[in-house]
Amino acid sequence: MRSEIIPVDAIPPFSTLFPLSLQHLFAMFGATILVPVILGVDPATALLFNGIGTLIFLIICQWKVPAYLGSSFVYIAPSLMIIGTYGYGSALSGYIASGFFFLIVAFIIYKFGSGWVRVIFPDVVMGSVVTIIGLGLAPTAAKYAGLVVDNPDLHIIAISLFTLLVTILCMTLFKGVFRILPILIGIIVGTAFAGITGHFNTDLIVNAPWVSMPTLYTPVLSINAMIIILPASFVTLVELFGHVQVTGTIIGKDLFKDPGLARMLCGKGVSTILSGCFGSTPNTTYSENIGVLAITRAYSTAILGGTALLGILFSFCGKISAAIRCIPDPVIGGVSLILFGVIAAQGIKILMDSRIDLSNGRNMILVSVILVIGVSGAMIDLGPANLEGMSLATIAGVGLNLIFILADKMGWSVNN
Question: Closest by alpha carbon to 8, among 257, 177, 259?
Answer without folding.
Answer: 259
